[in-house]
Structures are given as C-alpha cells and as structure tokens.
Amino acid sequence: MRPLLPVAALLLLLFSACRPDQVEHLSNTKELAKESANWEVKRIMPNDLLRATAWAGDSLTGRAERELRQVLADKLAAGGVAAALPFCRPERLPRTDSLAKAMQATLTRVSNRPRNPLSQATLSAAELNPADTARQVARPSQEVFTYQRPLVLNDQLCLRCHGEVGKDITAADYALIRQQYPQDQATGYQQGQAMGVWRVSLARNGAAELWTQKTRKIMKPRKPLF
C-alpha cells in the first residue's frame, strides 16, 4: 500500500494555489458580454428595413443640403451666381455622391417648377403639398426601398437663384439663368416654401447593412479621468 502523505501534500498544494483571493477576475466582463451579443446573428425583420430606409433617407438628404449650403456659400462669395449656378445639383456633389454609393442608394430631386424641364423629373402641383412635412417610406418591391420628404427652401442663399426676380435676383443674374436654362421655372420662391421633394431609392442590401451598423453598439475604450 502506497503512503498517503505525498498525495495529501499534493492536494493541499493545489487547494492553496486556487484560493479566491488569488484568482484574477476580469474587470470588463460587462463590456465583453455586450460585445459578444453585438456579433450574434440576428434576424432582420421587414419593419427593421423600413426604419433603416428612414435613417438612410434622413442621412443622405441631410448631407446633400449641408454640402450644398457650403458649396454655394463658397461659390457665391468667389464669383456670384455665375460661379454658383453649375453647382446647384446637390445629388452630384462629391461627398453626397460618395455617401449614396456607400449606402447603395440613388438620390433625386423632383419639382413642379424645375430649372430644366427637359432633363429634370417633374412633379404635378397636386402631388406637392406644402403642409405635408412627413417622411414617406415604402417597399415597392422585394429588393427596393424608397424614401421621400419635402424639399424646402430654408436658406437665404438659395434666393439668389430661386427667389423673386428684381428683389432677390438681379436682372443680370436672371439673364444669366435664362441663358443657361431657357425654360427655367424655378424662380419666384420665398424662404420656407416647398420647392419639391427629395426621393431616395435604396437597395435591400444597403438597408440591411445600415440596420446592422446602427444596431451594433460596439463598446469604446474609456478614457482615463486623469
């Protein structure tokens, strides 16, 4: 029979090595748990995709309006209406176009009084309700989502090209506008007036990707207080 003393000594050594006061606990277990949950495969429901479409439309049209204001301010200051007129196409501005491609979306403007009726989609007067400020989100097909909201003249800079002739638009500037756009109808507006609508068409994959990004709350490392 083997002596029990060496075995007892070994067990005592193991127990002493695992005392609770000597176990190192992880300090960020909550963060690790949330991070693990973020990467779980989650089913995306149709209503989730509609919400993502609303986010995409708000983000894209908001970006277009901000970029347009900045570009118009720079161009008007540098060369007046002559310099600004070619850039009044927010859907084609670089940062807006880049965001649209990343979202797999297409941004367009539609008006009942377009600047160039030959190349710009038109909107009937009956379809333009100035009192309607609500977003419209829909899914016309399995793979396509749409977004629409009013396009409102909120910036006084826009009156330089779209305001009242003789009051906001000088005779020289109006002659320039008519020279480039002989069938122009996009003047006579006042600040706060609806000029048309923004429309966004979004691919299903783009909506799903945006929903995933918006709902995945990745924990950021906390900065030290001192």
From TrEMBL:
Cited Pfam families: Tll0287-like
Keyword Signal assigned: yes
Superkingdom: Bacteria
InterPro entries (UniProt xref): Tll0287-like_dom
Signal peptide: 1-19
Domain annotation Tll0287-like: ranges: 104-202
Keyword annotations: Signal
Protein's UniProt keywords contain Cell wall biogenesis/degradation: no
Name of the protein described by the UniProt record: DUF3365 domain-containing protein
Organism: Hymenobacter terrestris
Lineage: Bacteria, Pseudomonadati, Bacteroidota, Cytophagia, Cytophagales
